[in-house]
Amino acid sequence: MRDFRYGEAARCHECGMRAILPTEDIADTFVARSGDRLEKVGCPAGNGWHVIYRRVENASLS
After folding, report:
1. What is d(CA 27, CA 20) in angstroms, rounded to the nearest whole number?
2. 3-state helix, strand, coil in the chain (%, to 5)
3. Total structural domains in the chain?
4. Domain that includes residue 13, residue range
5. Has residue 21 been placed in a domain?
6. Is 62 a domain residue?
7. pTM tops 0.85, yes or no
8. What residues contact residue 47 under an 8 Å CB cut-off, 6+ apart?
């Protein structure tokens, strides 16, 4: 996780340019560090994982 930078992540063209988190472990780390405010979702296009904040976003990735 130390080497992964969210801002430098590849972006998913199929999911509105969301950051692609390459592993579920990395997504879990972001969720934990957010105090569970973020939610992880598998990319429907198969490009890894995304994190979303449903309270703010009206996200339909799931």
Report:
1. 9
2. 25, 20, 55
3. 1
4. 6-52
5. yes
6. no
7. no
8. 12, 14, 15, 20
